[in-house]
Design a protein that fits this description.
The chain is mainly α and 190 residues long. The chain has helices at residues 3-14, 17-46, 61-69, 73-106, 122-143, 149-187.
């Protein structure tokens, strides 16, 4: 059995309403607690509101340099360490939540829509792009101001791909709920 099949089976086995709710609560705690705390610390250390590169859809080399110049040196060090530690854990929380949610939403549709059998693994692809993006951001933070346009473009491209995949994932969740409703109404006797 391949790793792909094992991961798929894991999420399908664990996909239930209570697990989705627990995963949502963990994700919300990470987003609203840990990640917000990190952002506040970066802002406080910089003495102003600064742009977090991970939260942009994309950025040019000039924009990235401008954003990073607004960070204090202390904030850049903190942000690099925060990305290395907290932003390694946080993507696991949202990837798990969205994988469990998609598995739960699409589980009853697996026979009807075979093309959607592995849609719940999409959040793991986001996780990979987020980690690659984090490597670029950490390098930008630690090497500033000596960062290459190539590194910035790579980081921006990875960030854009991450956000596009997040959008596709959210759309897939909504589409799955609508498909379940449609098949439910369609199967009712007239």
């Amino acid at each position: 059995m391949s790793v792909f099949n094992k991961l798929s089976g894991f999420f399908l086995r664990w996909s239930s309403g209570p697990v989705v709710i627990i995963a949502l609560l963990v994700y919300m705690a990470m987003a609203g607690g840990l990640m917000s705390w990190g952002e506040r610390n970066i802002q406080d250390m910089s003495g102003r509101k600064v742009q977090i590169l991970d939260l942009c859809f994309s950025y040019s080399p000039a924009e990235a340099r401008q954003y990073l110049s607004e960070y204090s040196s202390e904030a850049r060090i903190f942000a690099a360490n925060f990305n290395l530690i907290a932003d390694t854990i946080y993507p696991i929380s949202y990837a798990f939540f969205f994988a469990i949610l998609l598995a739960w939403v699409y589980k009853p549709l697996r026979e009807t829509l075979p093309a959607c059998r592995s849609i719940h693994l999409l959040p793991l692809v986001i996780l990979i792009f987020d980690y690659l993006e984090n490597i670029c951001v950490i390098n930008m933070l630690t090497k500033f101001p000596d960062i290459s346009d190539g590194l910035i473009r790579l980081g921006s491209g990875l960030t854009s791909i991450k956000w596009i995949l997040v959008g596709i994932t959210v759309f897939s969740v909504l589409a799955g709920f609508l498909l379940r409703l449609w098949f439910s109404l369609k199967s009712r006797p007239a």
